Amino acid sequence: MAVSTVxxxxxxxxxxxxxxxxxxxxxxxxxxxxPIRLIVPNPAGGGVDILARAIGQPLSERLAQSVxxxxxxxxxGTIGIGVLAKSPPDGYTLGMGVDATLAIAPALYRKLPYDPxxxxxxxxxxxxxxxxxVVHPSLxxxxxxxxxxxxxxxxxxxxxxxGGSGTPPHLAAEVFEAMGKVRMNHVPYKGGPPAITxxxxxxxxxxxANMLPGMPYVRSGRMRxxxxxxxxxxxxxxxxxxxxxxxxxxxxxxQWYGLVAPAGTTPAIVTRLNHEVREILxxxxxxxxxxxxxxxxxxxxxxxxxxxxxxxxxxxxxxxxDSGVRLD
Length: 328
What we know:
Elements: H1 3-30, E1 36-40, H2 47-63, E2 67-71, H3 78-85, E3 93-98, H4 99-108, E4 120-135, H5 144-152, E5 159-162, H6 168-180, E6 185-188, H7 192-200, E7 206-210, H8 211-220, E8 224-228, E9 254-262, H9 267-281, H10 284-292, E10 296-297, H11 302-323
Parallel strand pairs: 1-2, 1-3, 5-6, 5-7
Antiparallel strand pairs: 3-9, 4-7, 4-8, 4-9, 4-10
Helix pairs in contact: 1-9, 2-9, 4-11, 6-11
């Protein structure tokens, strides 16, 4: 082939690539032209739901289209995220990707209706936050050491609730039991809100509660905060120690939340959504409101979020194997 022909071919290819980039960018800027569905694979009123709605409202304003939150709970969130995995990759169905469905579930279930890496396009990490170890005020426990001593004297007699088997609150308790060498009785509920209500009502003794729905109960005195599960104290509960500083060194569990789209969503749409989400996380009112409830906002690039998910799958896989929990 003549050199001139090669040069012309190269120029044509470069021109085509530039045109494609321009068209892709233009497509991203014209998006969206109709309402967007935001799947929350958890019940209304829980931490995932609270965060989705906090982000969804300003996102709808910035995109000039309604962002409709759709709660699709069940099976620890795997049903709702499975629906997202099978949705058209057109940017009009998004979902909240969290540790329970993207990092923990692969180790808990032999079969899932989705692949946590292959079936999703990560958009951005949104926030992380610890759980709170809370007890009913009638329980004579005010510290981690108190709880360990109390539980050791009553093996399998202390009930703790969770939003379902295999959820982060459940696994946080399992890790606590293993490290503290105690045995308690797990009582799963259908979602975080009823599990928290059960502690406040005295139906169960304690819970490792999500901070977003749990904080109002702590502030009202209906539950007592004993410790937080992160390796540093929460800005929302500065006087409450961490579990690691209270007798169980190296105990560290935090929940995380992000925005994901179905795999195959065009880079232009992912980029647009990422930009808007990160702008929202920088808004003073959003930061103040969510930080007051214990959330640490954490915007990221799609690539950073994808890498983060991979690391979390490995971390939670080990935690699940060590706990011995399986949901087959």
